[in-house]
Fold this protein.
Amino acid sequence: MKWGVAAGVSALLSGAAMADTLPSAEEMWALIQKQQKQIDELSRSLATATERTAQVDARTKSVEQKVEATSAHVESLATETAGKGGGLIEGTTIGGYGELHYNSGPTDMIDFHRFVLFVNHDFNEKMRLVSELEVEHALVKNASTGQPGSTGELELEQAYVEFDLTAQSQAKAGLFLLPIGILNETHEPATFYGVERNKVESDIIPTTWWEGGVAYSRQFESGLSYDVAVHSGLTKTAGADLGDIRKSRQKVASADAQDGAVTSRVKYTGIKGLTLATSVQYQQDIAQSTLARENADALLTSVHADWRKGGFGLRALYARWDINGPTAQSTGRDVQYGYYIEPSYRFPISVGELGFFARYSVVDNQAGNSAASEKRYTDLGVNYWPHAQIVLKADVQFVDNPTAIDEEIFSLGLGFQF
């Protein structure tokens, strides 16, 4: 009994102590208001997050609908163009070629001379786009930066649309290679001998030479064909350089179009392995009407033969410029000519093919006066094709300069096409 009374007294004393530590009614009310405020803020945050989630869902659904619509459109185009010459990808082909050169002589130099991409597209069986984009010398320099060693160029060499008029005739319009010489239209590295292109088809026929205009071609069953083109022309370069043919190309880059030109070619391929062709170009004024009281009309004529029988090959070409007017006559550029002959022999080996060639070339860009200006080139070399589209080249060129020290240039080259 004494123990029970003691316990009751102890509990009363303890309850009184706890009552002293409990918050008052005002404090409890303040705490409840604070918690309610936090609950309201959480509710608003939750509502905002829910709204943003809904917006994201709506956008995702919109994107999915657009992707589905695009896919349906692409499929419909593919279905629409099937059997009509190819769809967006089906009718498009990509190709190209490249050349790396090393030259040792008066100047030792290594140069990735060209990298070219072809992108062609057949709109249908009778209409097609042909294009060719080239980077020369690996680097296109910004002159303002002063980067050394680069003379690179980014060039559009072909961009034309061709139409089949009949099974034996075509018309084209745009930017195209002129039908002159052997290399101007076909110059992929695996198709010719020598690391560098021959000097005649560089200094007399300024390969690669393209202009903008229209052209018509016609072929006959006999192997005879002809081409006629009306196009942009050469232009006058500064001062005494009138008639410097290679520098006179405008490359259809904001080109002066006061005076255009006409080029025609007749070609015969009626005998297997043999191609015979002649080309003529006429321009009424290669000074583009910039010379007072002078009309520098220019005529280019060329003829060539390309023959291959078994492993034996033979190429020969002659070209000549006749330019009227006292300005061209004053520098001897009124007459310019060049020719070469190139025998070769090609044969298979255990891996690929090997070919040897010799070439003798003569070039005179100032033959209109009595000054000695005729250069002679003798080339000897070898091509090795480990694959029909890959070629390794080595040659040596002996240059007979009329007014300077003779030169010997050794060259190595790698070429490919695809």
